[in-house]
Amino acid sequence: MLREKAEILDAKAMTRAITRISFEILEKNGGTENLCIVGIITRGGYLAQRIAQKLSEVEGRQVSVGYLDITPFRDDRPGCREYQDRSQLEFPIEDAKVVLVDDVIFTGRSVRAAIDALMARGRPQRIQLAALVDRGHRELPIRADFIGKNLPTSREEVVKVSFRERDGIDRVAIYAREGDPARS
Which of 11, 68, 114, 182 sits most deeply, having the most CB atoms within 10 A of its CB? Predict the structure, then answer.
């Protein structure tokens, strides 16, 4: 059972963080030329859509956005038999600057799986990583290039990102498992 400890970002703070990430992406890449945004399904996809929308508003040109299903590339679910690929990449990633997007970066294992999934589809010029929340606790040498919020947590805590498109509200909250001594 989870108990909410604190709201980390409300809707306005999330919007500011997404705007900041978007401007950092523009600055680091010198605009949107040859740039595409790829969100890790599910909540990374919502974040990718918002970043792409902000980039398009600022630059006055559409930015390609896609969605990546990493299920068969995960090391914690080997041999998924009933797998149906939900990826939607309607543009070539070969020689493109790809910004891979996830809602929360934690151990780095999902990002590793996403990089493998991208590389199976082509060879991008560059892969960069954007995350709304970086909570630490890496198990792999992976670092986000663009971060909305650094959030030190214990391994037992849970960070939940909610998007109005899926959850009816924009917010980031941290939860403690009931019985967890770090919950108060």
Answer: 68
